[in-house]
Amino acid sequence: xxxxxxxxxxxxxxxxxxxxxxxxxxxxxxxxxxxxxxxxxxxxxxxxxxxxxxxxxxxxxxxxxxxxxxxxxxxxxxxxxxxxxxxxxxxxxxxxxxxxxxxxxxxxxxxxxxxxxxxxxxxxxxxxxxxxxxxxxxxxxxxxxxxxxxxxxxxxxxxxxxxxxxxxxxxxxxxxxxxxxxxxxxxxxxxxxxxxxxxxxxxxxxxxxxxxxxxxxxxxxxxxxxxxxxxxxxxxxxxxxxxxxxxxxxxxxxxxxxxxxxxxxxxxxxxxxxxxxxxxxxxxxxxxxxxxxxxxxxxxxxxxxxxxxxxxxxxxxxxxxxxxxxxxxxxxxxxxxxxxxxxxxxxxxxxxxxxxxxxxxxxxxxxxxxxxxxxxxxxxxxxx
Length: 384
Ligand SMILES: CC(=O)N[C@@H](CCC[C@H](N)C(=O)O)C(=O)O
Description:
It comes from Lihuaxuella thermophila. The chain is elongated. It has 384 residues and is an alpha+beta fold. Helix 1 (3-17) runs antiparallel to helix 3 and helix 6 (201-218) runs antiparallel to helix 7 (257-278). The chain has helices at 3-17, 27-38, 99-115, 136-140, 143-147, 201-218, 257-278, 297-310, 327-333, 360-376, and strands at 46-50, 53-58, 66-72, 121-127, 152-159, 166-169, 172-175, 177-186, 190-191, 226-235, 241-242, 245-254, 281-285, 289-290, 293-295, 314-317, 336-342. The chain has 10 helices and 17 strands. Residues 97, 131-132, 157, 178, 180, 251, 288, 290, 323-325, 349 line the site of the ligand CC(=O)N[C@@H](CCC[C@H](N)C(=O)O)C(=O)O.
């Protein structure tokens, strides 16, 4: 792609980066996408909105089928610590999972096909709330999506650990099953000097956090992959008051649905034990649950065979990752695949200092425009 075009989408990414919004509140993000779309020839696009998401159809010349491409839209409640001159303007929120890159790439691919139509229809899906509570499932079930349901669907996710010019994927499971986890404990608060008249939830929560870690090491077959992370713990109100309440927030990741059930059963038993042992009350909320991302084996193998022969980029056959992605819901109904896009940066996903290499944006646009021309059996023009 030409340098000028690459700069357009890098600039758009920077604009998205400054307005990260939580799931189903992507109001400015939706507006920015709609204003960009308004700059394109309107007769080449059909647009529908669904909540804060957007569906854009680019009609083909002689469609046999519809090829879908999805980008997620939401940011994370993380305080940004990058060195960027275009940092988040939304205090306490950040695009720390690359969704700003994902949207810019989707608009780059879309723009190419507005100017260079292929035979097949294309559907671009801008999906809200990937980080939670999960926009993919309700969007998939929505009337606007059902009316335009594609026959195939693709998506990518940035990968800090791979160099720019590299992609990684695999047939079958790419990402794990996930379940959020919220546990509330209620005891009795009291004076810090009179522990015998209170029921301390700091101690109960600490015990619980440690006991939960025994599930993976003692209850799961060592040959299965499971992660249980408590990412946030809160208790009490002041240093000299015994805490009457505590809350643990976390996430569970498994490569099989059976392991997920087993982990949840064990959590219920351990939480019951804490209730009995500490004489407190506990409640569990499983929050948002995502199914695994399962890449269609034939489609993925075909992509992996095509990729090295038709692009100058490097392909890695990677292992499964314990990250989650509600794109798995699209793949549970529509054949397709997802891949990692190398953005080479020392900080990982969800880190406040992550600075993905923006040169990956034209790489991804180049790969996907080439691939959609190939899928549609149409020659791609030399200059996009
Ligand atoms: C790619 C990525 O980082 N995705 C998120 C998905 C979050 C799912 C849900 N909110 C949870 O925490 O279980 C991830 O954390 O893997």
